[in-house]
Design goal:
The protein is α/β, with parallel strands linked by helices and 428 residues long. It has 17 helices and nine strands. A seven-stranded mixed beta sheet has the order 3-2-1-4-7-6-8, with helices on both faces. The protein has a two-stranded antiparallel sheet with strand order 5-9. It starts with 6 loop residues before the first helix and ends with a helix. The chain binds 2-acetamido-2-deoxy-beta-D-glucopyranose (NAG) (4 copies). One 2-acetamido-2-deoxy-beta-D-glucopyranose binds next to loops. Pfam families: Gb3_synth (PF04572), Gly_transf_sug (PF04488). Keywords: Membrane, Transferase, Transmembrane, Transmembrane helix.
């Protein structure tokens, strides 16, 4: 697995340099080249301010040529990752998987009513320092090279092969990383059994039940959460568990810092060089600017002000009836609002970084070659993803039921990033 600066990072760094040294670069680079780059949307649509010091600026000079040359390749990707710009006007009826199902949530949030819902997992244990103590102890006692969080607010039975593969891919690319699965159901004897193969290999993974009181304390969401618990917030039609996952990931990163990943992501490369970044899901071909971000992969320092804004937005605008409103749309809304304001240092990575294929086309990655032309296309696409992407979001909601065919891109990426590499994993 490549662990050296992946190309995406070069883009990232170089754009930063470009930003910093716009004038001199303008002089150096010809106008047509700049236009081309702008058209391609490049990798970073917007970068607020100097990137943290861990990125040395020496990279600037050396990498910019590389960036320029690979940008031509990017154009095809950009086209591919574009799609109609209105996915989640999805109505529940069209996507039965969205409904409360076996996969969704432990509790039933009935429409608001006056009755108090029994949100079992929303209750805190007495002595609620427990959560933070466990998190800190786990991160502290293992020399973690990077800290990862996943959340699982569903039953343990639905934590299946796909989810386990996300864990596999994480440890394949970060053998010395530490992963906490924040989950009530997985924080159990059975949960430990499920993770035992990873523990057996010496990987650092643990499941810990969330403590919302602790996590939301001193944020704007604190009172929102109390109202929810008291039955004074309409949880809406959609699964509250998944919405809370949207909040939970923000609060986890805000309190502890690290990398958040969804359970339907295959990690392809080390993310250790990324800091304070979020990924674009789609870009606007005309402007080259991102048009939507996604919250399935996020890397942020503890206490980052953007996270605070996300949490605030969640509490102020929660709408449990609109798909994506508290998730992908939320981060997009907030980032476009704070864009250009001082004090919000972060980067937006191109769709290739985490979402090389959008949800509407994800099925194509599961297909084996149909004929020679198709086979060539597949291997071109595969190489492109291998070289440009840190991770691939599988959009489980759309792809969970799709079989992985032999010779498919997903099949190959999985054999690239497996740890156990036994047939079951490759036959999801
Ligand atoms: C695209 O992004 C640039 C840089 O942030 C901004 O100045 C410009 O207004 C944006 N264009 C559109 C159409 O949003
Ligand atoms: C090859 O397969 C692809 C994908 O199924 C199909 O769209 C295309 O028409 C086929 N081309 C030929 C020449 O059969
Ligand atoms: C694959 O490997 C994992 C970890 O060792 C194990 O739990 C699982 O049963 C294996 N599956 C098969 C089909 O061998
Ligand atoms: C308001 C909101 O974001 N609701 C979301 C709750 O979770 C479900 C399942 O992911 C989403 O479909 C809803 O959009």
């Amino acid at each position: 697995m490549a662990t050296t600066n992946p190309p995406q990072l070069h883009h990232f760094l170089s754009l930063h340099c470009l930003h910093k040294r716009k004038r001199s670069l303008l002089a150096l680079l010809s106008l047509p080249l700049l236009l081309l780059l702008a058209y391609n949307g490049a990798s970073v649509f917007y970068l607020q301010a100097p990137f943290p010091a861990s990125f040395s600026l020496e990279n600037c000079a050396g990498k910019s040529r590389k960036w320029a040359s690979s940008s031509t390749k990017l154009s095809s990707t950009v086209m591919l990752s574009l799609k109609e710009e209105n996915p989640p006007s999805i109505r529940k009826t069209h996507f039965p998987i969205l409904q409360k199902s076996k996969n969704s949530v432990i509790f039933e949030a009935k429409r608001m009513g006056k009755q108090k819902p029994m949100f079992k997992f929303l209750r805190s244990e007495a002595g609620s320092d427990r959560f933070s103590a466990r998190v800190k102890e786990f991160f502290g006692s293992n020399s973690c090279q990077s800290r990862f969080f996943m959340t699982w607010i569903s039953s343990i039975d639905s934590f299946g092969d796909r989810e386990l593969f996300t864990v596999e891919s994480l440890f394949r690319s970060h053998p010395h990383g530490c992963l906490i699965i924040v989950s009530n159901s997985m924080d159990s004897t059975r949960g430990i059994e499920i993770l035992r193969p990873f523990l057996g290999k010496g990987f650092h993974v643990n499941s810990i039940s969330p403590d919302f009181d602790y996590l939301l304390k001193h944020t704007v969401a604190e009172s929102w959460f109390n109202r929810l618990r008291n039955g004074d917030v309409d949880p809406g039609e959609v699964s509250l568990g998944q919405n809370l996952s949207n909040l939970l990931r923000l609060a986890l990163l805000y309190k502890f810092g690290g990398v958040y990943i969804d359970t339907d992501v295959i990690i392809l490369k080390s993310l250790s060089k990324l800091r304070n970044v979020i990924g674009a899901q789609t870009i606007d071909l005309e402007t080259g600017n991102w048009s939507r971000l996604n919250n399935a992969v996020m890397v942020f320092d503890k206490g980052h002000p953007l996270l605070y804004k996300f949490i605030e937005e969640f509490a102020l605008t929660f709408d449990g009836n609109k798909w994506g409103h508290n998730g992908p749309y939320l981060v997009s809304r907030v980032v476009s609002r704070v864009k250009g304001r001082l004090g919000f240092d972060f980067g937006v990575l191109s769709p290739m970084a985490f979402y090389p294929v959008d949800w509407s086309r994800i099925g194509g990655l599961f297909l084996g070659p149909r004929n020679e032309t198709h086979s060539k296309w597949l291997s071109g696409k595969l190489n492109h993803i291998r070289s440009q992407s840190y991770a691939v979001h599988l959009w489980n909601r759309q792809s969970r039921k799709i079989d992985i065919e032999e010779g498919s891109i997903i099949g190959q990426l999985m054999s690239d990033s497996c740890v156990f590499c036994n047939s079951s994993a490759l036959n999801l």
